[in-house]
User: Which sequence fits this backbone?
């Protein structure tokens, strides 16, 4: 019995090659349309939908399980700039800049 480097990974439960899975992930991260993904990867719409849903779940789980409560923004030697803009709402011109504090 051969050992697999994909066992217990996202690649372990699929028949797609790792290259195709990584291409789907790249296209998803770059916000490509599903139709473009279908064409470029060469798989059907259900496969793209299943993989994009799985990727969304993985990213959501990762974000929800990060402990950022005490983490500083930036880090040692990194300067973080904050823009002090204010925006308000008007009835038709949404998001206009508001003068003053």
Assistant:
């Amino acid at each position: 019995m051969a050992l697999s480097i994909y066992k217990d990974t996202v690649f372990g439960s699929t028949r797609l090659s790792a290259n195709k899975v990584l291409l789907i992930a790249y296209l998803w991260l770059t916000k490509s349309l599903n139709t473009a993904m279908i064409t470029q990867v060469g798989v059907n719409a259900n496969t793209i939908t299943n993989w994009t849903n799985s990727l969304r779940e993985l990213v959501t789980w990762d974000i929800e399980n990060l402990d950022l409560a005490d983490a500083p923004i930036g880090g040692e030697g990194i300067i973080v700039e904050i823009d002090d803009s204010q925006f308000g709402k008007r009835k038709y011109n949404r998001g206009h800049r508001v003068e003053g504090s």
Remarks:
- The chain has three helices and no strands.
- Residues 45-64 form the longest helix (20 residues).
- The chain has a mean pLDDT of 81.
- Residues 18-64 form one domain.
